[in-house]
Write a structure and sequence with these properties.
The chain has 312 residues and is an alpha/beta fold. The protein contains 13 helices and eight strands.
Length: 312
């Protein structure tokens, strides 16, 4: 068997989501690791001896959300993008998707990759997980950057606004909580649903092309992806409860960078997090909506690099 054939066989055997086409990124390698009983997919590259940067994406995306940022970081850093449980090419477990449970799986994956300490950068639901991970494993983090996300129990509103000018940004939180109905309405129409999010929440509706929408829709549709995507919202109350419990015992002391955008959901991420963090700073990326890594990847890469280099 040739080296290429051996590599292809290894990917096929390791991948728990074989019906989803695989995207490759030059200079990066696909890895799967056992993360406390859940097989998670990671894409790894850059400088093995450099500071480690772990990237987490949110709904309705996969690690591919970071594809434009990763090459810019690879020259100086050890870059690892991880699909959350239920996301992309990671396993879709039946167990809890509260963010403290998921954070333990993500941290176990990073340890399995041989990384003792790391910088954590996360968007949307990935930022939910990152906040909880910082509460559980702060001593092994160098810093955390959170991009445009309301955190359950922290900055996520208790009530969904009814003003049409604001409701379109958050209406889905209530919809995703309804038992069974989203699955009934969305099965077979995942592309329409995912496409709405990607086009409406980006500043420019042309940010995502048809191929990218197809990829993200397929990731949601295949092998229980829709169930897993909804589970993060359905377990958000438990995530909030565990966040509150942890914050009764501690404040975050690890450096926090809030990355907001000119047209995103959270105008000032740093201000929203600062009541629970001792060291929170922020940047605002211009000309971007919710999907900041896709819309302004160079600005995001620069903000991450500055955050790490200032911290080191």
């Amino acid at each position: 068997m040739t080296d290429a054939a051996t590599s292809a066989w290894h990917v096929c055997e390791s991948n728990p989501v074989r019906d989803l086409p695989m995207h490759d990124l030059a200079g990066f390698t696909h890895r799967w690791v056992d993360a406390d009983g859940v097989r998670l997919h990671a894409v790894e590259g850059g400088q093995p001896t450099g500071p480690a940067v772990v990237l987490l994406a949110g709904f309705p995306q996969t690690w591919w959300a970071w594809r434009k940022v990763m090459p810019s970081l690879a020259g100086r850093f050890h870059v690892i993008a991880i699909d959350l449980p239920g996301q992309g090419h990671s396993e879709r477990p039946e167990r809890s998707y509260d963010t403290h449970t998921v954070a333990a799986h993500v941290h176990a994956a990073v340890k399995a990759l041989g990384v003792p300490t790391y910088w954590l950068v996360a968007h949307d639901i990935g930022a939910w997980v990152a906040f909880s991970l910082a509460l559980k494993f702060e001593s092994q983090l160098r810093g955390v950057a959170l991009l445009d996300a309301g955190i359950p129990g922290i900055t996520l509103p208790e009530a969904i606004p009814t003003d049409p000018d604001r409701a379109w940004k958050t209406w889905h939180f209530a919809f995703h909580l309804v038992p069974d109905l989203p699955e009934t309405l969305l099965a077979g129409r995942e592309r329409d649903y995912v496409g709405w999010f990607l086009k409406m929440k980006a500043l420019s509706p042309d940010t995502f092309d048809d191929t990218e929408i197809d990829h993200y829709a397929a990731a949601v549709a295949v092998d229980g992806g829709l169930r897993a995507s909804l589970a993060y919202y359905r377990d958000a109350a438990e995530s909030a409860r565990k966040n509150h419990e942890a914050l009764k015992r501690q404040h975050l002391t690890v450096p926090i960078l809030g990355i907001s955008s000119s047209h995103g959901s959270i105008p000032d991420m740093a201000a929203s997090i600062s009541p629970w963090a001792d060291d929170a700073t922020g940047v605002v990326v211009p000309d971007a909506g919710h999907f900041i890594p896709d819309e302004q990847p160079e600005a995001v890469a620069a903000a991450i690099a500055d955050f790490i280099l200032d911290g080191d």
